[in-house]
Design brief:
This protein has a single domain, classed as HIT family, subunit A (2-Layer Sandwich). The protein has about 150 residues and is α+β, with helices and mostly antiparallel strands. The mean pLDDT is about 90. The strands form two sheets. It has a five-stranded antiparallel β-sheet. A two-stranded antiparallel ribbon has the order 3-7. It is built from four helices and seven strands, in the order H-E-E-E-E-H-E-E-H-E-H.
């Protein structure tokens, strides 16, 4: 872990980046995205982060890429079971932090079709911390079979 890296600091439990830890899965960390400026969370916005410094998708090993694909599908399946979104979008974004991270963003039924996919958080149900913690616990149990972070 790098002392200057924001994601490494997050993985150590510090730094300015937040979120609700769901689980560690095969070299990746799964988080519910951090609270917004309004003090609420866009329900179901998940982030998968690499454990090691891997800034680009093509820097993943063959095994990491296979694990990521399975994790992504498992998380999307769990989100659909728990929240019933119309879609779960996946986006690999980020240019300044040397960790691979992929966002899974729920788009809920009834969202105005004129809202672009990348603005789905703006139309998502907003939740407070207790609801996010409960969702994280349910997802953790679905994904790992355990109730505590791994």
């Amino acid at each position: 872990m790098d002392n200057d890296c924001l994601i490494c600091a997050k993985h150590r439990g510090g730094g300015p980046l937040g979120g609700e830890l769901v689980a560690r899965l095969d070299g990746f960390w799964l988080w519910h995205a951090a609270v917004g400026e309004d003090g609420r969370y866009a329900l179901g916005h998940m982030i998968i982060e690499s454990d090691r410094h891997v800034p680009y998708l093509d820097d993943l090993t063959v095994q990491e890429a296979a694990d990521l694909g399975r994790i992504r599908s498992d998380v999307a399946r769990a989100l659909r079971a728990e929240l019933e979104p119309a879609f779960v979008f996946a986006a690999v974004i980020g240019q300044r932090i040397p960790h691979f991270h992929e966002h899974l963003i729920c788009r809920f039924p009834g969202t105005d079709p004129d809202i672009p996919w990348h603005a789905s958080d703006d139309a998502a149900p907003q939740a407070e911390e207790p609801e996010i913690a409960a969702l994280a616990a349910r997802l953790r149990t679905i994904l790992t079979g355990h109730s505590g972070p791994r």
